[in-house]
Amino acid sequence: MLEFLIVLLHLHGIPGYEPSEEDGRAMAKTIEEINEKIKTGKAVVVNAEEMIGIVEEKGSRGAAETVDVVTTGTFGPMCSSGMYVNLGHSKPRIKAGGGLCTLNDVPAYTGFAAVDVYLGCTALPDDDPRNKIRPGRFRYGGGHVIEEFVAGKDIRLILDAYGTDCYPRKKLETLVNIFDVNEAVLFNPRNAYQNYNCAVNLSDKTIYTYMGVLKPNLGNATYCSAGQLSPLLNDPFYRTIGLGTRIFLGGGVGYVAWQGTQHNPTVKRKPNGTPEAPAGTLAVIGDLKQMKPEFLRGASFYGYGATLVVGLGIPIPILDEEMARFTAVRDEEICTQIVDYGQAYPDRIPETLGEVNYRELRQGRVQVRGREVPTGSLSSYPMAVKIANELKRWIQEGRFLLSLPVTHIPGPESGITFKPLQERPIEDHLELIGQEGGRR
């Protein structure tokens, strides 16, 4: 807790706090000072890959004095993503709330006011065969609708309503596009995972997962992280990232809205602060009308479902020597766990087949149980570099300023851990209600 308070004092410049040389946080600069340099075109901005070489050459102290901002990036499937849209009112008016809505035959959620709808990227048309014949193809879902919507294509909207005195219409079929609607907002409850599993399959059959197709008997291994470019791995304790942090999202500007679902900051960490397993996550939001389909791509996973591949980048202000060290982390210094998706993952068996670093993963082969296993990434490293460089360019051109978080997302000191579902038999609950004489 003391360390967390020190971070807050440091970031907000509280009078009376004097960082020591030993803790690596001797005050070098503030976000406000960095923004002034951005406005005048004097800020030194590099991506996280470039920062590695700068720290190697100048040391963390020299790098902190030289560099103002390090940009990060990631581009991978992020299933907890979606968009909400205000459609505008038809004549006569119709109440989507409580009714049924589809966008290109993909169902959207209508549990809001009259013409607000939310489309999740994993939603599927009602007539999709899913896994009736395995593996299902899942050729079109919510993520594909979002990509087409961002690209400006016409989308077929169908609303079925029950009708009211003030919203009498019961049926609406029309074409809409992103230019027609009022608000179109990307809102993703869980993005930018801070590290993730390396998946393998110990079973004797091919399996189809959100980590891709896994061949039997350790036939391949998949992973999903930008490693040394990944945003939360460059700020492992979330010192500069919190509510209101301005980010690159889908090719436009977005913001951190909250910690993401399944945020799990208390997992075991290496001495450099990087977690050894899936840890922090972010909930993010941004104006979909600013975004580009290049950075929001609908995707299909055989035997699993539809999703959305999201491009996301976060600028890390180099406030001091410690932040310089954090942003110089290398792939070989970031480790993750090898997990069996044939049984251990689906049955929630807490075991690992070993640890591997991202340099090993990117080299194309890893050792698992004495066998050499080929690897493949679900996250695009070249696109992560492109995102980091695009964000770098925005900052260098003075088009993108850094933002001071309103408050920070919970770190290891919070004690927050991801809780599994505790199942409770419904029959026991109904019996209890009956004993009490009725419904509660």
Written description of the protein model:
The chain starts with a helix and ends in a 5-residue tail after the last helix. It has helices at 2-12, 31-39, 48-66, 142-150, 321-326, 358-362, 381-396, 426-435, and strands spanning 45-47, 69-71, 74-77, 82-86, 100-103, 106-108, 116-120, 155-160, 171-176, 184-191, 198-200, 207-209, 212-214, 221-223, 246-249, 252-259, 282-287, 296-301, 305-313, 315-317, 335-340, 355-357, 365-368, 371-377. A hairpin with a 2-residue loop joins strand 12 and strand 13. It folds into two domains: 71-78 and 186-414, no CATH class; 88-181, no CATH class. It is globular, with a radius of gyration of 24 Å. With 440 residues, it is α+β, with helices and mostly antiparallel strands. It contains eight helices and 24 strands.
Please sum up the structure shown.
This protein is of the alpha+beta class and 440 residues long. Helix content is 19%, strand content 26%.
